[in-house]
Every structure is written in C-alpha cells, then in structure tokens.
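Re: [ENG-882] Designed sequences occasionally contain unexpected residues at chain ends

Forwarding the minimal case from QA. Structure tokens:
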C-alpha cells in the first residue's frame, strides 16, 4: 500500500471519528482536570518514545501525549518499563496510561481504551540493506525468505494474510523479542524480519507491506476519569488541528521506508517467460517522452524512469514508439506491446480505451498558455486547444472542466497563431513544454496561466488480458524508485543538463535559482512538501556528510561577514595530504569518519564571526579573523597538535597530515577581489606545499602566482611529453608462488620530466583521467609493450604475458578495441601475451551490456583481461560470475590490513577458492614480506607481485636482473 493511500485512509478515519464524536459530546469536567499528575508507562521505542543523550524526550507518542496535556492540563510522570511490565502495571492501576496498545478483544477485560486510535502502525517484511547486495539474493523469491517474527499476534496476523497468497508454507522463526529478530537478520542468520514502521531503522528496506494496525492509549478498566481526559484531549486536537497526526507522521518519518524489490515465484516465472518487455512510448510528449534528435532513440523523464526501474529490478525493456495512442492500444491488445508508458492514470480513461493501469510513477503538470485575462474558475465559455497528437489528453481535461470547449491544433505555430489572434483562448500543454515554447517561439502577449486542476498522475498501462503478475511486477518496481532518483531524472530534463550532472550537482549549480525561481516555475517542484523543500535547501547549501556549509553557501556568507572593519581576514584552504591513502587503506567509511572528525575539530576551533565549509572531498575552506598577522600560524600550530590522530572507535587510529594554504586579505582585497580569486589564491598557497610528512602551511605571496601550479605545468606538457617519449615503461615481475619463478610482468608508467624530474603515476594519472589524456597514454604504453614483446621474441627470450593498465575511460569509448587491433597489427606479437588490467572501480555505473561487449571484443582478439584492485572499493563478488575475467588481482589493501586476522584469512581464502572454481587465475599484489608469501601459499594463491620479489624496474635493469630461462 502506498503512502498516499494510507494518508487518505487516515484522513478518512479522522473525519469519520470527528463526525461520530459529535453525537456524544465529551465535556471534560473541570474536576477531572484537577487530577494533575498522570503516570505514563514509557516503553522506549525509536520514533515513538525516544530519549536522547541529553535526556530530551521526543517521538510520535511523546508529542501526542504532550499535545493532549495542553488540553487537559496534565503533567506526566514517565515510568520506564518493558511492554509486559507496562501491561501489568497499567491493568493494576499502578500506572495510569499505556501506549501504543493495539486493540484486542481479550484486552477489553483489563483495559479501558481511548475512543480514537492514536495512530496506526504498518507492519511489513523488511530485509536488511546489507543483505540486498548478497549474491545469493539474486534468485531468491519472496516466499523463500526465512522470516523472523515474535509471538506477537499482530505480526502473525500480517504473516497469515501473506501466507494465503503464496503456495508453499512460509519459513518463519519466532524470537523472544523483536530486537533479537532484528539482530539475527543483521547477522544474516535469517533473511527478513516483520517490523512495524515504528520499529524499522535505516538498516532495513521493506519488501512487502502486510497489515495496518491502529493503536491506542489505554488505562485500567473502569478508570473513566483518565480515559475521558484522553478522549477530550484527542477530540480537541482533531477539531482544531486536523492535520496534527499527519504532520507527526511526517515529522518522525514514519511511513517512509526504503523499498527493495524481491519478486515472488510467480513473478519470477513471468519474467523468465518474458525476458524482454516491450514498452510503447508516445514520442510527442517532450520532455516526458520524445525522440532524441541526435540518436533517434526515445528519451525523456518517463523513459529514464522506466530505465531506472529496469536497472533496479533486473527487467529488460525495449522501447517502441507507435504512431499514437489508438495505435499503441491496438498493439497492446494484439500482444505486440507489453506495456504503455506515460499514460495519465484515470479509471474511466483506462476502461474507455480498454487497458489496465499500474500505480503512478510520475506527476505531469499542465498549464494554459494564453492571454492574461482569459481564465475563469470553471472555464465556462472558453475554448482551449490541444495538440492533435496528444490523443487522450482532451479526455482528461473535458472530465475536469465539463464546460470547457476543447479543439485541437496540428502544430505549434498554428496553435500559437490561433491563441494570439483569439480564435482560441489558450493552449493546454505540459508545464515543461510551455517553458521551452516561450523560449523558442515568439509568443507575443501569451503567458503561462495557472489552472485549478493541473496535475495528473502518470502510470503504465497493460492489456486487460495481461497476467496479474505483470502489474504486480511494475508496481513493486515503481515503489522501489526513491524520491531522490525520481527528482534527479526530472531535474536532469528540466534544467537542460540531461545526464551530465547528478542531482546534487544540479542543486549546487542552480542553488540560487532553486530557492526562488525554480520552485515557482517548474510545476514539478510545486508538489514538494514543505519538508522536502527544506531538504532541497539543505542539499543545495549544506554538505551531506558533515552537515556543515558547502562552498556555495560559504561564498554567500563570507561577504557580509567580511564587511566589518577593524579586523584582518584570511581565507584558508586546507586538505589532508594523505587522504587518498587513508581511503585506500581503511576504506571509504573510515575516510568519511576522518572528514567528520576534522569538520568537528574545525568547528570547535573557530571564533565568533568565523565560518568554514567543506568543498569537494577533503577540501575545507575557512574564513578567519585576527588582530595581527603573526597570530595565524600560532593558531594553526595549536590546532594541528590537537588533531594528529583520529581514532575510529574500533582501536584503529590513523595519522592525518594537513596542508594549509592561507591567503591574508588586506582592506583593498576585501573591497576589490572577488571571492573566487580569494579562494583560488588560498588554494595556490595550499598546492605550493607539495608532498609533506608533517602538517604544513604556506602563506600566499605574489611569487606563487607566477609559479604556475603543478597541474597546469603537467597539462601544458603532456602532448610534448608523449611525442618526446618522456614516458617510460617500467616492469614489475609477477611470480608463481609454488616455484617463485617469474611468470609475467606488469607494465607501469613513469614520467621522466625534463624540469620536474621523475614523476610517479599517482601524481599525473588522476589528472590525465580527468582531462582524457590517459587513453593516449595507455595506447602508448600498449604499443611499447607490443614492441618489447616483439623484440624479446626476436632475441629468442622466453616469453610470458605482460599486463598493461587500462583506464575506465576506454570503456566509454567505442573505438578502443579497433585502435588496439590496429596497433597490434604493426607488430609480430601473439595477443595472448598481452593482458589488459582494468580496475574494479571502472565498472561502477556502467551499462552491463556495454561492458560485456567490450570484454568479449578484447577476448576475440585474444587478449587476457584482469580485474585489478579487487576488493579496494565496493566490489561485489557477483562481478566475477557476471563477466568473463581471466585474472583476478587482489588489492594490496587485503595484505596491508592492520587487523589482518582470521576474518581476512577466510575472506582471501574463499575469494581464491571461488576464483579457481570460476576458472579465474588469482594473483595477489603488494606482497612485501616473507610472512605474506607464506600466508598466500597457505590459502592457495597461485601468483604474487610486490616489492618482496622486486620493485617495478626500468627496462634495461629488468632485462639484466630478471632471469630469462
Ligand atoms: P596498480 O595498477 O595497482 O599498480 C600497482 C602499484 O603498486 C604500482 O604503483 C606499483 O609500483 C605498486 N607496488 C607494487 N608492488 C608493491 C608493494 O609490494 N608494495 C607497495 N606499497 N606498492 C607496490 P605505481 O607504479 O606508482 O602505479 C600506481 C597506479 O597508477 C597503478 O596502480 C595504476 O592504477 C596506475 N598506472 C600506472 N601505470 C599506468 C598506465 O600505464 N596506465 C594507466 N591507465 N594507469 C597506470
Ligand atoms: Ca595494475
Ligand atoms: Ca592494482
């Protein structure tokens, strides 16, 4: 059941309750009010009765009782108890109130229930999120889940309802408490757990909703005084603040759960027999559905949402674009199409045109384009025109405005002319379309007019004869799309930045617009609730990780702060020198923790009138004020000694090294410089520090400006460097662990720069990745390796595979494989001697089909493919079965793990076993000690590479040192 439906039910329930209460008017006698102190059983429950560290109470139940007390004059004394304790003590009259208590007939003997429910809890089957990624999950059906529950009858009721809809008996394990069941689920002992939306937490996603249970406040049987008080209070609340409950639900985020899709067996069977679902789109509905001018393929908000559904649920869709709606429905009914997308959801419309509809997945907004004075409420006596291609739309408008006369126009120019010369009063079009019309065409006096009914839910349509599974599959998948994902797609199209920027980037970029114009202009955003608008504002101006200002907000806020005279200001840019290493070694989560702690430390160190923000990654910016210039370095010294080490709470500590660039402002600077310049200069000072091993700071001066920063030099030099062969191939041997003989090598690039000297790849590859130069470099390295192998062959040396690193960028280009083939043709080299290393993170966010085709083309030529840095990021084992790798390179972080223990052993051991079973050769990189060699031998790893055997060597040295047998 969806949130909106629930809301309706609650609202309806409220109205019914209000009506019925009129008949037995409760007047809460003043005598009752004199019983001032009321004892309440406090059963701590997240989101219902919560106490934080500072002893502040909150929660749905707490707020509601508090509100009741406003009307009764009660003062509560809360007594902490368990649920059974509370039941007993309330029944015996020791405590006055218990909540939340569900209604059960057998409880009537002991309890006096309030007349109105305090709220309703929604039970559902939840899985733990970490579990979602589990490889075994892929084929699991909903009815296969092992579900944890408690003896609680209400959970049982919900499960019973579900059990009736499936064929096999459910697998249920009963736990003494719901906490125990949750823990078992988090520990992966069971798949799922039955929770109410008050019990759920961030770690769980719902896969199926079960039953909605009203709950009450109750007191001991016969204690009418108290219960009259509750009834009176609740009635007053319902009369004077009709949305009180609804707002409380929103406040405590109660109905909103993340949804995960697990199909039932029937649904799975349906998908198996329909591997590709054909979706009919209406390409006349820009920006909802239309053809991309460049590719000729259907695109648009609705199409992207459908694709998102496909991606999340593993369904394959194929888009077809019939001529018009009549045509589409014909195709739907004769089985040429499975689904129609982008249809306005309307029962009558569906039955008139003979199809069934899913839940809605989008709202579409319409506006009038016409002359200002033309509209009236009912639109009586007015004529509207709709593009003739929009079959179906007149239907919806006629239904909402029966007195409106609707005609059609065949193209935009004609439509506009008709509206301008008054032969029609206005045109009806999608709000987003109206926006572009106003930009492109000469609209004269025509403006966008509001209308009363302007929003229509948009849904999928399926044939009336389609199997019910198709609809349930679609509905589940629609529920799985998060609000963020939906907004992201809508914003992509509405801000004209389709597919280029992420939601957050768009928000940042359009931050100023958002708060003013965008909200008002794009109908889509009008639907956001106040809470969501706040959320958007937060997203636009505050950093999600630290909760502190972002750079946009920082830039806005420092101007007024700096206007105060008699102060000296500095802009400071600061980052963590070894942040990448921290991420690599400890993982991103720990990296995040470091950022959080740094933000906290900075916040504490600031004086009044100073602010800071987090920019990208580990970049922080500060506005500082001081009386003297000498004072600043001292302040940093004091600051940095405090934050040498951050601990992670699990006995690990990590050292951080800060690089601090200071730009000291003079009065003229404050008056003249723009903020970008100030920030740039602080950054130049920071970057002037280069690599350092202790906290370092630098104060900006003019000479730095002339010393163009490192990146720029590199960027200006890279093409020359390639032409002049400044890039050199270094080789690092790979060794068979059984024999310790060399059986391969990896080619690693080094840059011998004429002025900068020897540069390691970590200092330029990331930049090359950014500016795209990396692909040229990779082809260069590839060619050198081809030449090398050819020479070795001619010299009669023993040959073994050499691997070359390939950037993710190649996966995005269509001509990579062709280029490799061309280069290869120039040399007499067996392609089997070349292995392409692609790092694990390259595969995230890429189209699977694209990856698979890239890999099979490489294989066709004969190259081997190695999955580099496996385990360094968020790798999933399923990648191994999904794609055809020849070699698996375990990232060196596995061995570096400070807490290398039993778990690591088991982990590496099982990865190796798995790779062997899948016929993938495992190799461990970064081997530095004898101990590690022995460990790897013990877990059966075949190959290794690392400083223990040899560092990467220049070619000449490699040929000398490494024996060629
Ligand atoms: P990678 O592919 O993971 O390469 C292994 C890196 O680990 C190399 O660093 C190597 O010198 C280092 N290493 C090897 N054995 C040990 C050891 O026992 N202990 C430690 N601590 N390190 C060890 P390098 O050469 O600095 O390369 C860094 C990264 O730059 C490479 O990581 C690779 O991602 C990238 N890279 C290097 N050459 C190329 C290239 O030609 N093309 C592309 N696209 N990337 C390259
Ligand atoms: Ca590599
Ligand atoms: Ca590697």
């Amino acid at each position: 059941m969806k949130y909106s439906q629930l809301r309706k039910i609650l609202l309806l329930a409220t109205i019914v309750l209000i009506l019925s209460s009129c008949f037995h008017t409760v007047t809460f006698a003043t005598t009752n009010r004199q019983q001032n102190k009321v004892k309440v059983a406090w059963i701590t429950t997240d989101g219902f009765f919560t106490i934080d560290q500072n002893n502040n109470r909150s929660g749905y139940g707490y707020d509601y009782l508090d509100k009741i007390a406003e009307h009764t004059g009660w003062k509560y004394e809360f007594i902490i108890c368990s649920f059974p304790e509370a039941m007993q003590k309330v029944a015996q009259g020791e405590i006055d109130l218990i909540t939340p208590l569900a209604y059960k007939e057998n409880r009537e003997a002991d309890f006096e229930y309030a007349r109105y429910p305090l709220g309703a809890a929604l039970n559902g089957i939840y899985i733990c999120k970490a579990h979602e990624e589990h490889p075994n999950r892929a084929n699991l059906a909903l009815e296969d889940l092992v579900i944890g529950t408690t003896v609680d009858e209400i959970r049982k009721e919900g499960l019973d309802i579900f059990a009736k809809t499936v064929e096999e008996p459910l697998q249920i394990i009963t736990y003494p408490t719901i906490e125990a069941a949750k823990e078992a689920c988090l520990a992966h002992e069971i798949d799922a757990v039955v929770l109410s939306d008050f019990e759920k937490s961030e770690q769980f996603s719902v896969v199926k909703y079960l039953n909605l249970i009203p709950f009450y406040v109750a007191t001991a049987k016969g204690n009418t005084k108290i219960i009259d008080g509750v009834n009176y209070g609740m009635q007053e609340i319902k009369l004077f603040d009709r949305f009180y409950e609804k707002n409380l639900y929103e406040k405590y985020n109660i109905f909103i759960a993340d949804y995960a899709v697990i199909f039932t067996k029937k649904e799975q069977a349906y998908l198996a027999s329909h591997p590709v679902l054909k979706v009919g789109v209406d390409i006349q509905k820009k920006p909802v559905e239309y053809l991309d001018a460049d590719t000729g393929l259907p695109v648009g908000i609705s199409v992207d949402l459908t694709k998102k559904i496909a991606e999340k649920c593993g369904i394959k869709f194929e888009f077809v674009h019939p001529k018009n709606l009549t045509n589409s429905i014909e195709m739907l009914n004769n089985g040429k199409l499975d689904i129609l997308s982008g249809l306005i959801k309307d029962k009558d419309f569906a039955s008139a045109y003979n199809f069934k509809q899913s839940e809605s997945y989008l709202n579409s907004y319409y506006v009038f384009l016409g002359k200002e004075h033309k509209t009236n409420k009912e639109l009586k006596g007015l004529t509207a025109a709709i593009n003739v291609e929009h079959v179906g739309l007149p239907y919806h408008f006629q239904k909402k405005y029966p007195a409106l006369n609707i005609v059609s126009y065949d193209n935009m120019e004609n439509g506009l002319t008709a509206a301008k010369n008054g032969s029609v009063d206005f045109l009806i079009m999608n709000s987003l379309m109206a926006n572009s019309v106003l930009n492109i065409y000469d609209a004269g006096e025509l403006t966008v007019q509001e209308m009363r009914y302007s929003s229509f839910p948009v849904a999928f349509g399926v044939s009336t004869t389609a199997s019910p599974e198709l609809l349930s599959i679609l509905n589940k998948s629609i529920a799985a799309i998060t609000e963020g994902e939906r907004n992201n797609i809508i914003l992509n199209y509405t801000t004209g930045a389709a597919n280029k920027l992420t939601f957050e980037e768009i928000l940042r970029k359009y931050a100023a617009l958002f708060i003013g114009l965008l909200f008002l202009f794009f109908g889509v955003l009008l639907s956001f609730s106040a809470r969501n608008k706040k959320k958007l504002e937060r997203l636009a101006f505050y950093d999600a990780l630290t909760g502190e200002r972002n750079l946009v907000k920082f830039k806005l806020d420092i101007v007024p702060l700096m206007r105060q005279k008699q102060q000296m200001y500095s802009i400071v840019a600061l980052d963590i020198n070894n942040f990448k290493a921290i991420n690599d070694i400890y993982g991103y989560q720990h990296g995040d923790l470091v950022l959080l702690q740094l933000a906290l430390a900075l916040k504490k160190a600031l004086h009044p009138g100073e602010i800071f923000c987090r920019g990208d990654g580990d970049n922080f910016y500060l506005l500082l004020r001081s009386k003297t210039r000498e004072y600043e370095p001292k302040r940093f010294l004091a600051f940095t000694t405090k934050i040498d080490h951050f601990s992670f709470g699990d006995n690990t500590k990590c050292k951080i090294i800060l690089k601090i660039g200071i730009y000291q402002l003079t009065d003229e600077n404050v008056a003249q410089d723009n903020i970008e310049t100030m920030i740039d200069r602080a950054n130049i000072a920071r970057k002037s520090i280069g690599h350092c091993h202790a906290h370092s700071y630098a104060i900006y001066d003019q000479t730095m400006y002339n010393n163009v920063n490192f990146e720029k030099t590199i960027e200006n030099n890279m093409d020359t460097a390639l032409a002049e062969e400044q890039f050199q191939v270094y080789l690092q041997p790979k060794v068979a662990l059984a024999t310790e003989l060399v059986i391969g090598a990896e080619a690693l690039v080094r840059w011998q720069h004429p002025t900068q000297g020897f540069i390691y790849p970590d200092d330029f590859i990331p930049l090359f990745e950014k500016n795209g130069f990396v692909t040229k470099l990779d082809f260069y390295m590839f060619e050198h390796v081809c030449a090398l192998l050819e020479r070795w062959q001619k010299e009669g040396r023993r040959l073994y595979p050499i691997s070359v690193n390939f950037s993710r960028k190649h996966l995005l280009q269509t001509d990579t494989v062709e280029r490799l083939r061309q280069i290869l043709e120039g040399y007499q080299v067996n392609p089997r001697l070349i292995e392409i290393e692609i790092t694990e993170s390259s595969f995230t966010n890429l189209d699977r089909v694209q990856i698979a085709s890239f890999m099979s083309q490489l294989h066709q030529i004969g190259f081997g493919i190695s999955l580099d840095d496996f385990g360094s990021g968020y790798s999933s084992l399923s990648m191994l079965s999904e794609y055809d790798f020849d070699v698996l390179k375990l990232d060196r972080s596995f061995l570096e793990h400070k807490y290398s223990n039993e778990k690591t052993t088991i982990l590496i051991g099982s990865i190796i076993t798995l790779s062997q079973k899948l016929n993938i050769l495992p190799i461990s990189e970064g081997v530095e000690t004898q101990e590690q060699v022995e460990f790897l031998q013990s877990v059966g790893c075949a190959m290794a590479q690392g400083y223990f055997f040899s560092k990467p060597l220049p070619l000449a040295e490699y040929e000398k040192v490494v024996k060629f047998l």
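QA comment: On inspection the terminal residues look reasonable. The pocket of C2E (ligand 1) is lined by residues 732, 748-749, 760-762, 765, 774, 777-778, 781, 805-807, 868-869, 892, 925-928, 946-947, 952 (CB under 6 Å). Proposing we downgrade this to a documentation issue.
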